[in-house]
Amino acid sequence: MKKFESYRQPKETDSRVLKQEIVAEPFHCDFSTHLTMGVLGNHLLNVAGNHANARNFGIETFKTLSWVLSRLVIEMDEMPVQHDHFSLETWTTSLSRLFTNREFAMYNPEGKAIGFATSIWALIDLETRRPLNPLSVNDGQLKQYMYPEYTVPIQGPGHIRMTAPEEVYRHVVCYSDIDLNGHLNSMRYIEHLLNCFELDYHRTHRLRRLDIAYSAECYAGDEIKILRQEKAPDVWMLEVVKPDGKAAVKSLLEFE
Amino acid sequence: MKKFESYRQPKETDSRVLKQEIVAEPFHCDFSTHLTMGVLGNHLLNVAGNHANARNFGIETFKTLSWVLSRLVIEMDEMPVQHDHFSLETWTTSLSRLFTNREFAMYNPEGKAIGFATSIWALIDLETRRPLNPLSVNDGQLKQYMYPEYTVPIQGPGHIRMTAPEEVYRHVVCYSDIDLNGHLNSMRYIEHLLNCFELDYHRTHRLRRLDIAYSAECYAGDEIKILRQEKAPDVWMLEVVKPDGKAAVKSLLEFE
Fold it and tell me: CB contact, 8 Å: A5 with chain B?
């Protein structure tokens, strides 16, 4: 189902927007030749980092502060296949005392929209691990980069609550899960969530929309469980549970 | 230990060599900020594919034939860290009725060698799965691209035979393991091999040399086992075993 057909890339790029060209590399694609959702998520985070650093509010500027991803929604009309070129735009739309909103748009080389994403971030002090008001740093300069008029045509994060969860996956967090921050990489969760579905399911279904909520970190050696419940046909709620029983991640996956 | 300090990048690139510039992206790095060996392996395969396709002996030219990786050895004096730029060269040195040799060199921006790799490939008919003599295709044109004078200063593949193997890892092959060819991705094996070591071991050791031999494919749903034996201090033999008891991969890892 194509929903974004009528959305076209703006002719001019506003200075508040960063646009980068990406190629879907063969080794970033799954068995169906489509770019994987986890790799696409990494591209989003990379471009977000470049956008923020170039405007002096990235982690390279802040040093003792860091942006922490709280919610991410990605919705794709079509996923690029190997060797496809596409462009990825990102910008920020609003900020409050606790959260900052960042949007993403993806276009094919003809300028037709193929997907959008929206995300919510907290700025935290790396020492105290407490959130900071983003307007309290750099004399509130972040405000000038907000671009609320440029909106994405997808629904924001939804509420995820399971009533009859079933355990479908167990995994001990290991070396290749762990990123620069010392905990399970936020995009690696997406791989684990997708691994809860048999290859045959992936053969006959395409992930249209990913909604993911991050609430706690996992570390090397943690045995994680993934619980799952079907909410509607091909719409799945999942929860990654830490050894202490707390949720690390909740997610809603919509296949078509 | 630096072994490659005296090796410098040639000023001129021979037309038989392809050189590509690479950046170590943050999401391709492990907890120690170094590029992971699996991602480096993907870069090698990508550049090898580009080199072969540009010279009309890549899989995009052949269609019904494919290059299959049989052996790969990578040895790194130093591994790039996040945001590092490096250049990657590849070329072929020799071919025989069954096997073709391909070499790789990696240089830092100052032209100092940081690592080398050597690999052995078979050309197979995708329908019969049987190897083909590479001189029998395209009127033997491959021969003109051989560059035997440009050698790499590392030892070739070694013999790997365990006498007292210990099972250290089990894994059911899943969605994110499977690549475009429908089997466990050759570079994903490297991740699984490295996951056989605790994070604490990775904290205090660096993988200097990887030697890997591919002998059979693994498919989604296969429960693989990894056996391991220490050959010498910090030198490990590993074997990935398929459900039928046959070896899919054997490997020798040298840490320092």
Answer: no
Instruction: Name the residue ranges covered by the structural domains of chain B.
Output: 18-145, 166-255
| Burial class of residue A167, CB neighbours in 10 A (0-12, 13-18, 19+) | exposed
A149 min Cα distance to partner chain B (Å): 31
Alpha helices (H) in chain B, listed in sequence order: 37-54, 59-62, 188-194, 199-204
Superfamily of segment(s) A166-255:
Hotdog Thioesterase (3.10.129.10)
Chain A residues whose beta carbon lies within 8 Å of the beta carbon of residue B178: 30-31, 199
Asked if the Cβ–Cβ distance from A179 to B29 is below 8 Å, we say yes
Torsions phi, psi for B76 (to 5 deg): -120, 125
The CATH topology of domain B18-145 is Thiol Ester Dehydrase; Chain A (3.10.129)
Question: What's the pTM value of the predicted model, to 2 decimals?
Answer: 0.94
Q: Where are the alpha helices (DSSP H) in A4-115?
A: 37-54, 59-62
Residues contacting A159, CB < 8 A, separation 6+: none
**Span B100-153, pLDDT tens digits:** 999 999 999 999 999 999 999 999 998 998 999 999 888 888 999 999 999 999
Cα–Cα distance list, B186 to A233, A251, B95, B158 (Å): 35, 30, 22, 19
ipTM of the predicted assembly exceeds 0.95: no
